[in-house]
Amino acid sequence: MVDYRKYLVWQKSHALVLEMYRVTVTFPKSEQFNLISQINRASLSIPTNIAEGCGRETQKELIRFLYISSGSAHELEYLLLVSRDLNFIPENIYLKLNSDINEIKKMLASLIRKVAQTVNR
Hints:
Layout: H1 8-24, H2 35-54, H3 59-85, H4 91-119
């Protein structure tokens, strides 16, 4: 078991969750049970799956949860795009958040490769 809080990717994804909650509060109330809920769940899923994977028994299980986390990051990337296109997010905020998500996706891919190397030994 690994302390998930030590992973930089978890720290960055946790910060992203906090930022997403701040951003979605400005969305129209009509989106509360649609886009807002979906964005918040997708963003929350990224660090949550990292944490859950770290609590599992094997490295293979950790990898599986890291893949789920990566899938949520990809989902969030699209949800932000559609939010921008609907004019719920200004372009400058979209660009910053999209950059953060892409960094997290790259970090997850790197961590998956690193952990997979320990499994294949």
